[in-house]
Amino acid sequence: MNEFSRHRRLRRNATMRSMVRETTIDPADFIYPLFIVEGEGVRNEVSSMPGVEHVSLDELSKDIDEITDLGIPAVLLFGVPKVKDAEGSQAYAEDGIVQQATRFIKERAPELIVIADTCLCQYTDHGHCGVIHNGYVENDASLDLLVKTAVSQAEAGADVIAPSNMMDGFVHAIRQGLDEHGFVDIPIMSYAVKYASSFYGPFRDAAHSTPQFGDRKTYQMDPANRFEAVREAESDIAEGADFLIVKPALSFLDVIRDVRDLSTLPVVAYNVSGEYSMIKAAAKEGWLSEQEVVMEMLTSMKRAGADLIVTYFAKDAVRWIKEEKNER
Ligand code: PBG
């Protein structure tokens, strides 16, 4: 009998370490979020998210070419409309900003998967993800608008619908709506588990979607809850979701693992804006090495069970992965 184990045998040099590496990341694992604004010649950096820009349609071809050249398979589209109203009508307008951007991208890069974020908060003047009745976000009335939004996104050519608003029954309602309109082959990437997180702060700057009163705690989940995440995921699976998103990712790696163990559907980790900005800020100060920390963080999301990662770091991460491959 050995008196103790010699774990370091498998760590002696880089080749040995790479042979026993359990988790790897590949460019095909990434989904890159894009913020599309109305107007012309717009390319503005979001101040709280260095490296992330608002771009108008006439600027978008540069981004699309860069993304496809890097081999990133998919983009997630967020629209920042000029006009907002109580019902978020620009979310489902035929010439809405996401609908226009979708048509443009499918024309420019037909192979690139366009995932449309389906929510109302960027489009409503009150900044909530549904319609308001007596100060409360109404579930079922909001569903009707979400279905309209999803159908109009599919009509514009979206490959995947990603509802993020956390109304109950949204997968069921959107599935039915898509099917009735002939979109039986369009998958739903559900934000199945979405917490009411303070890590969304920089995104709300980027998308101009801060709620004008109250907060999102009557529809997004309490970060303290783990079993509730299982219930949320189970109901979305039953309603016909094709992918399950867990959001945010970094503070919820245990939940990613729970969802992974619960289902055989592809699991998506959403590495949110605050997780991006805090690394950017620390790296700028020279307090940590951006590349190493980002790769460690993204690897931990895959190790926790994610198949895909939505991340603002996608372009950098792909470049770093390719550089490392060339060095080997
Ligand atoms: C909209 C939406 C949000 C994010 C994605 N879709 C913000 C929110 O719920 O307030 C956050 C993304 C991020 O922080 O990167 N419902």
Query: Per CATH, which architecture?
Result: Alpha-Beta Barrel
**At the first level of CATH, what is the class?**
Alpha Beta
Q: Which residue ranges are poorly predicted, with pLDDT under 50 across at least 5 consecutive positions?
A: none
List the ligand species.
Answer: ligand PBG
Number of helices: 11
DSSP summary, beta strand count: 12
- Give the CA-CA distance, first to last residue: 39 Å
Order of helices and strands: HEEEHEHEEEHEHEHHEHEHHEH
Helix content: 25-40%
Structural category: alpha/beta
Fill in the CATH topology.
TIM Barrel
Give the DSSP E fraction (strand runs of 2 or more residues).
Answer: 15-25%
The overall pLDDT average reads 96
The major sheet is characterized as: 10 strands, mixed
Commentary on this structure:
- This protein is α/β, with parallel strands linked by helices.
- It has a single domain (about 25-325), classed as Aldolase class I (TIM Barrel, Alpha-Beta Barrel), CATH 3.20.20.
- About 40% of the residues lie in helices and about 20% in strands.
- Strands 1, 2, 3, 4, 5, 8, 9, 10, 11 and 12 form a ten-stranded mixed β-sheet that branches.
- Helix 3 (about 95-110) packs parallel to helix 4 (about 140-155).
- The chain binds ligand PBG.
- Ligand PBG binds near residues 117, 121, 203, 204 and 273.
- Ligand PBG binds near residues 204 and 273.
